[in-house]
């Protein structure tokens, strides 16, 4: 599979927490953990389980962080 997004990082799934409809998937990419919220159906379709390999793909026009 080829995609246009340049920010692609291969990592290992370290946690999958399913909710009512949405799951939080944590992927370790070289010591940094990235968390993504995706549907439970997507978790099942992709076969995401702890210790499986996955790519984190970041495609965003804005990344916001704020503190008081």
Lateral arrangement of strands in the main beta sheet? 3-2-1-4
Number of helices: 1
Mean pLDDT: 93
Q: CATH fold name, please?
A: OB fold (Dihydrolipoamide Acetyltransferase, E2P)
Largest sheet: 4 strands, antiparallel
Which term fits the overall shape? globular
Q: Which CATH architecture?
A: Beta Barrel
Helix content: 10-25%
In sequence order, what are the helices and strands, one letter per element? EEEHE
* Number of DSSP E strands: 4
* Broad CATH class: Mainly Beta
Low-pLDDT windows of residues:
none
Q: What class, by secondary structure content?
A: mainly beta
Gap from first CA to last CA? 42 Å
Percentage of residues in DSSP E strands: over 45%
How many structural domains?
1
Indicate the multimeric state: single chain
Tell me the Rg in angstroms: 13 Å
CATH homologous superfamily? RNA polymerase II/Efflux pump adaptor protein, barrel-sandwich hybrid domain
């Amino acid at each position: 599979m080829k995609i246009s997004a340049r920010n692609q990082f291969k990592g290992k799934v370290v946690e999958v927490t399913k909710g009512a409809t949405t799951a939080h998937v944590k992927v370790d990419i070289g010591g940094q953990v990235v968390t993504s919220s995706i549907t439970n159906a997507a978790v099942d379709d992709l076969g995401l389980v702890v210790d499986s390999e996955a790519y984190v793909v970041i495609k965003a026009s804005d990344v916001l962080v704020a503190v008081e």
